[in-house]
Amino acid sequence: MESETAARGGRSQPLVEEAVGSSRTMERVAAAKKIIENDYRERMKNLRERNERRLILEQQLASSQVPREEQIKLIKELQRKETEYMRLKRHRICVDDFELLTIIGRGAYGEVQLCRDKSSGNIYAMKKLKKSEMVVKGQVEHVRSERNLLAEVGSHCIVKLYYSFQDAEYLYLIMEYLPGGDMMTLLMREDTLAENVARFYIAETVLAIESIHKHNYIHRDIKPDNLLLDKNGHMKLSDFGLCKPIDCTKLSTLNEDEPMTDENLRESMDIDYSLSDTANGRRWRSPNEQLQHWQKNRRKLHFLLSVRLIILLLRCY
Predict the structure, then answer these.
(1) For the chain, does the N or the C end have fewer beta carbons within 10 angstroms?
(2) pLDDT tens-digit profile of 214-259?
(3) How far apart are CA 43 and CA 18, in angstroms?
(4) Does residue 24 come out as left (phi exceeding 0), alpha (psi in the -120 to 50 range) or beta?
(5) Is the residue at 310 inside a domain?
(6) Domain that holds residue 37
(7) pLDDT digits (tens, 9 = 90+) for 130-185
(8) Residue 145 CB contacts under 8 Å (≥ 6 apart), including other chains
């Protein structure tokens, strides 16, 4: 009996190893397939954008009074720049291409360092993320969304991404360095902003949020700490670790003809104010009941407060 059990155990061991090996092979095949698909998609995108840039230039030249010889020179100059751009994209960037200067920030699974490009001398902010920590904390998709958004959205209202690369241990994002600090520091230093200054930064914040909404992303972490200032005092949106791609075709729209009153907003969100008393139409709640009510409706109430703020800002304009 023992010999039969040992024999069955001996036969099952190779089956287990084969199943594990097959699973790993499938994972590698899926990863290789994704790499090939991403590379093909990126190449097609670059080709399409290159053709669009040439078409735009040709249309502008056709509608202008530029002589034919000058038009040919401009088209050749564009071709030269496109070739140089493609050559730069094929260049393999690594951490050794940068001189690390100092640490300017730390996060849950990485840090931000000030660095200098050894070839050009330009100053950048290097976001260094430990890959093992991202996997353990389940942040891989968040980091991928952040990288994709930065690579896709070309707006002067958000922090610019110049390079992204990785080694065996870390993922690196080489980003624009903004020496002006963040909005939280400005508010703490100034205490109160002048009305024209507040309007200016509110407008730039709205433009930054709009720029990512146009590409079907939502930020989900708007706060003064993530509003950075450049050397000229202009504001740029940063930290897209919680951003999320959305399908705008499945979102409901607001009726622009309907007046946006508190009652309409409260009714559309079904916030519970149905229990009344003799004083103000609402039943008195104990502190524990108020806490439970807030926890139940905090998302709806947060949205209501956000809409009120937007209405107030629009009235200011």
Answers:
(1) N
(2) 888 889 889 999 999 999 999 999 988 888 888 766 666 555 555 5
(3) 37
(4) alpha
(5) yes
(6) 20-81
(7) 988 888 888 888 888 888 888 888 889 999 999 889 988 999 999 999 999 999 99
(8) 217, 240, 243, 244, 245
Which of 156, 176, 196 finishes a domain? 176
Rounded CA-CA distance 173/98 in Å is 12
- For 313, other C-beta atoms within 10 Å of its C-beta total 15
List 221, 262, 272, 277, catalytic entry: 221
Ramachandran region of residue 175, left (φ > 0), alpha (ψ -120 to 50) or beta?
beta
Q: Is residue 75 part of a domain?
A: yes
φ/ψ of 178, rounded to 5, equals: -115, 105
266 token code pair: 């409260």
Between the CA of residue 31 and those of 27, 90, 110, 134, 158, what are the distances in Å? 6, 22, 24, 18, 31
Final residue belonging to a domain, choices 176, 204, 235 = 176
Instruction: Could you list the residues known to form a binding site, using ranges.
Output: 137
Residue 100's H or E segment, with its range, is strand 98-106
Active-site residue, 247 included: no
pTM value > 0.85: no
Helix axes 287-316, 195-213, angle to 10 degrees: 100
Residues at the binding site for ATP are 137
Residue linked to tokens 């951003």? 243
